[in-house]
User: Which sequence fits this backbone?
């Protein structure tokens, strides 16, 4: 991490207009360029398993914490300092842009996002206006603070993908089977398409705010899209996700696309337009590369539960991931899904240094 710039240029930006993070291992791997070592970061590295995070958050509701730039900055930096990861991920949540445009929702401890009036009819579309940067001034401010602090360490911005956001809106909260969501998708395809299109605009606007503020990569989390068959994904979801990727193309910022249980969807997710495809632990990276096709970097894919096994098991499973990744055009090491809340933070720190050691060139 580096000091704040005194040159008058935006913080985190070099003379040539490139971000100070441009040549980082993480951004090089996203661009499929040679790297000094395989870069590592962890989904859900900010918060969750860190005692210093829990201490900071004491008495502050989750959504409120996302609106306090200094707190967001500190929470985002905690795992970078502690684990020496190759990228920071902005501390926020996928439902923040929905809250910002006036949807009545909360994030309940131990539950997740809960929407007061679930989305079910065409009249509900009126509640989904586009997001304006002035709706999320705290995001712009926090990213400004962060890029100044992070220097050459890249900051990943993120948003929820249209399907995953729709699932929370339509179900009204976390769901195992997504039955109301699928009922709308199968039963009223026109309303469904309009809903996803609206969510694509909101998501694209939210990502653009983060890019304009200095995020050096963006990840679209389609966590629950693995619940769909490929034909339904192609027909009912892919156009909206592709719209998001198109909208944020051409900013020189790599776009990452991630979902869980997406083995059968990897080819289509590649087609949706991202530069990097995130893979969960169910498909070896060599096979994932075959499914995704050429011209994409891959991110993944150690089972987060492996971190509960002993050090030797972690190292053995890590070598398996690295060897499956050996022939890839670009590889970013990550878990196959987020850090589990009771993970020992020291196991994460050891894992970062193990991957760096094993892949040093
Ligand atoms: O990665 C990071 O460390 C940055 C912070 C971050 C991110 C990237 C948070 C903070 N949330 C997210 C994304 C997110 N939020 C996703 C996609 C990633 C994933 O699949 O894990 C999803 C599905 C959500 C929705 C959400 N928000 C849930 C899941 C509920 C379910 O359906 O099972 C939960 C529990 C939350 C609350 C939340 N978000 C973040 C934190 C630290 C918390 C817990 C806060 C609390 O309870 O006080």
Assistant:
């Amino acid at each position: 991490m580096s000091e704040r710039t005194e040159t008058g240029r935006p913080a985190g930006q070099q003379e040539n207009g490139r971000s100070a993070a441009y040549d980082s291992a993480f951004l090089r791997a996203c661009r499929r360029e040679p790297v000094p070592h395989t870069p590592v970061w962890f989904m859900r590295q900010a918060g969750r398993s860190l005692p210093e995070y829990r201490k900071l958050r004491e008495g502050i509701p989750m959504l409120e914490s996302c609106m306090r730039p200094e707190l967001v900055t500190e929470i985002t930096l905690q795992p970078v300092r502690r684990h020496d990861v190759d990228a920071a991920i902005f501390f926020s949540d996928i439902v923040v842009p929905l809250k910002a445009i006036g949807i009545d929702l909360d994030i309940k401890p131990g539950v997740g996002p809960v929407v007061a009036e679930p989305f079910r009819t065409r009249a509900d579309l009126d509640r989904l206006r586009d997001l304006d940067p002035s709706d999320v001034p705290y995001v712009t401010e926090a990213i400004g603070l962060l890029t100044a602090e992070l220097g050459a360490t890249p900051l990943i911005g993120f948003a929820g993908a249209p399907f995953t956001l729709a699932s929370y809106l339509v179900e009204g909260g976390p769901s195992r089977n997504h039955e109301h969501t699928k009922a709308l998708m199968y039963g009223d395809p026109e309303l469904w398409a309009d809903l996803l299109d609206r969510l694509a605009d909101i998501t694209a606007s939210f990502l653009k705010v983060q890019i304009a503020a200095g995020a050096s990569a963006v990840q679209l989390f389609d966590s629950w899209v693995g619940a769909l068959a490929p034909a339904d994904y192609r027909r009912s979801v892919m156009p909206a996700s592709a719209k998001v990727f198109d909208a944020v193309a051409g900013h020189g910022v790599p776009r990452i696309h991630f979902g869980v249980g997406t083995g059968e969807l990897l080819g289509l997710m590649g087609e949706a337009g991202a530069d990097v495809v995130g893979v969960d632990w169910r498909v070896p990276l060599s096979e994932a590369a075959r499914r995704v096709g050429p011209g994409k970097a891959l991110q993944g894919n150690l089972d987060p539960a492996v971190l509960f096994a002993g050090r030797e098991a972690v190292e053995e499973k890590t070598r398996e991931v690295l060897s499956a990744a050996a022939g890839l055009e670009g590889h970013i090491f990550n878990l196959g899904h987020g850090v589990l809340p009771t993970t020992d933070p020291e196991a994460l720190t050891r894992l970062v240094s193990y991957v760096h050691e094993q892949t040093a060139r």
